Amino acid sequence: MLSGAALWHVLSKSDQPVMHVDAGPTLEEIRRTIDREAISVQLLAAADMLAEQPGGDTMAEERYRYVADEYADTEAAASARLRLHSLSQRRTVQ
Amino acid sequence: MIRLLNTVLSALVIYASLTAPTRAEEPAWPKRTLTFELSDEPQMWERLNPEVKGTPTHVAVIQFEGDARRIFRNLQAHQYVAKVKETEKANSLSDQQRAFLAVRGFNSAHVLFWENDRVGSKERHRVFLYAMSEQDAHTMAEALIEVLDAEAKANLEKAKQLLAHHREVKAQYPKTIAQLKEKLTQTRSAMKKLETYVIYSQLTWDAVRADKTSLDSKLRAIEIDMKGVQAKIDAIKKVQSQPSTRSEIARTLDRMLIEQDIEMAGLLARMQATEFYRGNAAKWLCLWRESKQTLNDINNKEAVLSRADKEVKRMEQILANPSSASAHGWQDRMYPVKIVDNKVVIHQVQVK
Predict the structure, then answer these.
(1) What digits encode the pLDDT tens for the residues B291-300?
(2) Do B224 and A39 touch (CB under 8 A)?
(3) Domain range spanning residue A72?
(4) Which end of chain B is less enclosed by CB atoms within 10 A, N or C?
(5) What is the greatest pairwise CA distance in chain A?
């Protein structure tokens, strides 16, 4: 059984952000961009699963922040920021 | 010396007033004929309670025969006085007698008390009912006997209802049990069918539940993998849509897209298989619970049926001869209270 937390550790060992050059991206850079998109989406999905568990909010929040910071250039990072905002609002209401 | 007041002053004719038709094996409620005698031997009365209004002039003495617990149901005197006041006969009591009955102090011993005698092997109980006139004493005696007989009739009715209930169980439960057994067979057959598609480690509740939990986790992992693959596909398509992409890169991206499509197809197949097994596990667990519940129902109903079978025999014996009910473990009196010589003796009262 692979839990959300365990999955997170596997997925989070990703490469660093891609450096773009003016001459246009190389194939390797494109591969890395694609991988980063995939990994960030997977990390986001794992964090969502944690958030659904009772008491999983704190752990999920930590993962959303990681995606938002470390994969800031991806679409998943934008979603992670929205999730963080939503969690923060929920906490204020409570 | 006792002189006969009248051959028959009053007759209490009590018939069984039962809602259900009387069965052949059940005896009819016997007819009772009471004689009232006036004694010239006075009985003592002591004013133990200063609140009691008036002084009684007469006392009706009734001698009952039998087990006191069955005659008086362990009730206290004031409870019987309250019951006497609720009878129709109580309407004909004098105002003085009503006022006399109204005081409850000293457990109503100023109105009613009983003492136990033993004549040979027979247990007897003399009940004293004090009254403000001879007529009131007479009415009080009739009313108390009516109360005691009404109790017995209520007990008889209760026993009949119980017998009817057990007979109903005997008639209905075999059919219900047969239906439940058929349901159990069907449930077990459905479980057997599912077991041909299982990947469970063991066919026990705990093992299948653990396997289902494991399949849930696998499904979540597959879901995450699919999201990753979909993100790759989207990213590849995004790069492909840029017109400046060099041709060798475009070819590589095409290959990558095919690889991701294949990966996605594999994940979809894994997801479908996992969902199939997980669904079977969930169904198996549901059927397991159902079969256990049905089996419990069958066992419970078989036990109730067996008990009903014995109870019908016992209740039939009891109702065929209510006076020997205690021999069958039935303590409630279901027959008219036995009055020695069917006689009530009325004495004058002398105040102590």
Answers:
(1) 999 999 999 9
(2) no
(3) 25-93
(4) N
(5) 52
